[in-house]
Write a structure and sequence with these properties.
Component of the general transcription and DNA repair factor IIH (TFIIH) core complex which is involved in general and transcription-coupled nucleotide excision repair (NER) of damaged DNA. With about 90 residues, the chain is mainly α. It has 4 helices and no strands.
Amino acid sequence: DGEAAKLSENGFQFLLMETNAQLWYIMREYISSAEERGVDPTDLISFLLELSFHTQGAAYSLSTLTEVQRVAIMDLMELGLVKLQQVKL
């Protein structure tokens, strides 16, 4: 529309938060909007808890994930919270 993007007061307050508080805010919003996306919040929370027990930096196969879990992984990748890597055979 030719308009410049503007930072709202809420956006500014978000930027002033500590990094860990920003992350919790994003995850809380992601979980609370799950039903709107047709995802059972219980399944999503269960998967996020499962992810928290994985070893940081270790590769895991996506082939065993459900569709909901794959979508969550892609969302987390777009947020920069998960890194996908190609496995060399």
